[in-house]
């Protein structure tokens, strides 16, 4: 078991944004986290990545309790993430953006230089523009690729993807799904938060559904999506349409 | 024969430019520095009167470099900068004191006192780094400002140590009435501060500073420890400020809290650094000298308007921040790029 969350709770004042969520992820799995808007998916991801400290519960990585560790420590332990709204470093070039992950996030290894990691990550996401381009000149899709390259350059063992596919066209969706599978094939375990069901069905082996901070279902995507509770959470009465 | 000789010379030339580049000088930047260094021997700059302007220009330029290390890289405007410079000045001046009316009468030579002042200022910078760590942008600036006000208050009220608002008259650094040696001292300080800051910002530290300044969440998620880099940045910047404070104390040989530590002094440096262009370090140097000449000229031409230079600083700074945030250095880089492209096109046309 590479990752386990046990009864994770996160309160904002009186609001329980994440309420008692537990699940575990196997090594090499692509695990989906879905739920309606405001269900607490990103908050949960923040609790895992160290951006927020959970109020209760434990987060276990490789059998080690890592609850409440700082984001920079989590990164060194092998957890990388992308952001829901891609947030690179606007006045750094594409190359420098990725370099940040390669230099500060990756474990020290004399065989692989930071430059190798940068090259590899940018090639891997097939970054389309010159590496000298300042990040502030990129469009939303390019920013997502850049954010992914930055996260990959720190050579993670667990990758958290927060709505990577939001705002992409159908063609781009296929590409990103391919990319996600290829990342997994490199031995990286992935947890993705996503709204687009096509992506969830296309790549995830198991998913958890969260509603109002609580886990309402867990299992294979097709089973879960036919679960009446899930359908109700999303649409009230109707079935989910894809 | 001739060709190999030429190639050899060219290789030698590129060797020199490489060394220069490594310490942060472009060939044209180095030429400007050489011009600056011989200026005190060329009339009218050789007059004592104008030498004082040059010294003040170098003093401001060096401050702008140290200030830009924090403002231009980690994006925190240190509003307490002048107070920390003043702390360095006061430390050195107090240690040099021999007057029996004050508590401390060590009579330490300014040459050592200056460095102790820098270390004290660096230490306060270290603490300031921790204090502002959890704060972003504006809040960090306000916190730094409060610390500055507190230091100013101490300098004013610890009368047994500082003579309060009456101020101190520290001994001068050199036993000479000529300004020229002082110019070379401050020029050396300016170059040293610039080279140190440049080497730091060229390294991984610089990348970490800029990443933290532009997006602290993504920086942390990429494994950058904000404490380490921000505290280091503040410490280095304040150390440089303290050293410059020491120079101020023993060059102007008059020190009052109002004259060195006041917020308007920070604003002066801030304006020069911002007009010069944030995140380049050398932008402030390029701006400081013409500015001092311009302001001093204005002061002598319009003696009835004493605060005019601050108004001009303010207006220019607002204009630059709104319309051209890259500043003078950004413009120079842009122009250089354009010339390069133009030359390449011209060569391609043949």
Features:
heterodimer, A: 242 residues, alpha/beta, Rossmann fold, six-stranded mixed sheet, four-stranded antiparallel sheet, 9 helices, 36% helix, globular, B: 350 residues, mainly alpha, ABC transporter involved in vitamin B12 uptake, BtuC, 16 helices, 77% helix, 0% strand
Classified by CATH, the class of the domain at 1-68 and 193-236 in chain A is Alpha Beta
Which geometry of chain A do the CA atoms define? Answer: globular
CATH superfamily of the domain at 1-68 and 193-236 in chain A: P-loop containing nucleotide triphosphate hydrolases
Q: Gyration radius of chain A, to the nearest Å?
A: 18 Å
Q: What portion of residues of chain A belong to β-strands?
A: 15-25%
- Distance between termini of chain B? 27 Å
SSE topology string of chain B: HHHHHHHHHHHHHHHH
Query: In which order are the strands of the major sheet of chain A placed?
Result: 6-7-8-3-9-10
Describe this structure in words.
The complex is a heterodimer of chains A (242) and B (350). With 242 residues, chain A is an alpha/beta fold. Chain A has a domain of 112 residues: 3-Layer(aba) Sandwich (Rossmann fold). Helix content of chain A is 36%, strand content 24%. Chain A has a 6-stranded mixed sheet with strand order 6-7-8-3-9-10, with helices on both faces. In chain A, strands 2-1-4-5 form a 4-stranded antiparallel sheet, covered by helices on one side. The longest helix of chain A has 16 residues. Chain B has 350 residues and is mainly alpha-helical. Chain B is built from 16 helices and no strands. Chain B is globular. Chains A and B meet through helix 2, helix 3 and helix 5 of A and helix 9 and helix 10 of B.
């Amino acid at each position: 078991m590479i990752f386990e969350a046990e009864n994770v709770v996160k309160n904002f004042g009186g609001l329980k944004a994440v309420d008692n969520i537990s699940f575990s992820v196997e090594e090499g799995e692509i695990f989906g986290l879905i739920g309606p808007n405001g269900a607490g998916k990103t908050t949960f991801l923040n609790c895992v990545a160290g951006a927020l400290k959970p109020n209760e519960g434990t987060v276990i990585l490789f059998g080690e309790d890592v609850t409440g560790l700082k984001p920079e420590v989590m990164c060194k332990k092998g957890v990388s993430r992308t952001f829901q709204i891609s947030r690179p470093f606007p006045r750094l070039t594409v190359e420098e953006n990725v370099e940040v992950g390669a230099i500060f996030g990756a474990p020290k290894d004399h065989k692989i230089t930071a430059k190798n990691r940068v090259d590899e990550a940018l090639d891997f996401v097939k970054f389309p523009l010159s590496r000298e381009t300042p990040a502030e000149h990129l469009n939303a899709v390019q920013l997502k690729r850049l954010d992914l390259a930055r996260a990959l350059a720190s050579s993670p063992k667990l990758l958290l993807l927060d709505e990577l596919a939001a705002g992409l066209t159908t063609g781009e969706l296929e590409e990103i799904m391919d990319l996600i599978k290829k990342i997994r094939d490199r031995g990286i375990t992935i947890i993705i938060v996503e709204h687009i069901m096509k992506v969830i069905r296309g790549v995830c082996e198991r998913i958890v559904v969260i509603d109002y901070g609580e886990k309402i279902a867990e299992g294979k995507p097709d089973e879960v999506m036919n679960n009446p509770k899930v359908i109700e959470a999303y649409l009230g009465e109707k079935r989910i349409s894809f | 024969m001739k060709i190999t000789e030429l190639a050899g010379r060219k290789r030698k030339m590129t060797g020199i430019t490489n060394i220069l580049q490594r310490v942060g000088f472009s060939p044209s930047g180095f030429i400007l520095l050489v011009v600056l260094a011989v200026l005190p021997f060329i009339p009218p700059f050789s007059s004592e009167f104008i030498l004082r302007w040059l010294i003040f220009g170098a003093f401001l330029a060096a401050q702008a470099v140290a200030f830009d290390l924090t403002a231009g890289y980690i994006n925190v405007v240190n509003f307490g900068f002048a107070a920390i410079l003043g702390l360095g000045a006061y430390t050195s001046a107090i240690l040099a004191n021999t007057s029996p009316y004050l508590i401390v009468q060590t009579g330490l030579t300014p040459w050592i006192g200056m460095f102790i002042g820098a270390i004290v200022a660096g230490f306060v910078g270290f603490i300031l780094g921790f204090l502002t760590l959890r704060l972003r942008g504006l809040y960090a600036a306000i916190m730094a400002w409060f610390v500055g006000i507190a230091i100013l208050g101490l300098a004013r009220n610890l009368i047994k140590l500082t003579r309060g608002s009456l101020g101190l008259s520290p001994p001068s650094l050199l036993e000479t009435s000529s300004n020229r040696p002082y110019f070379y001292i401050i020029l050396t300080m300016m170059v040293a501060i610039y080279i140190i800051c440049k080497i730091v910002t060229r390294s991984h530290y610089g990348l970490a500073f800029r990443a933290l300044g532009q997006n602290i969440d993504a920086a942390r998620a990429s494994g950058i420890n904000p404490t380490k880099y921000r505290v280091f940045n503040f410490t280095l910047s304040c150390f440089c400020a303290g050293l410059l404070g020491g120079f101020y104390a023993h060059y102007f040989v008059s020190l009052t809290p109002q004259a060195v530590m006041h917020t308007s002094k920070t604003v002066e440096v801030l304006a020069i650094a911002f007009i010069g262009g944030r995140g380049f370090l050398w932008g402030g140097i390029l701006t400081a000298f013409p500015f001092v000449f311009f302001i001093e000229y204005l002061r002598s031409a319009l003696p009835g308007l004493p605060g005019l230079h601050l108004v001009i600083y303010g207006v220019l700074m607002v204009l630059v921040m709104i319309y051209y945030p890259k500043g003078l250095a950004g413009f120079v880089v842009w122009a250089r790029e354009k010339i390069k492209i133009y030359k390449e096109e011209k060569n391609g046309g043949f």
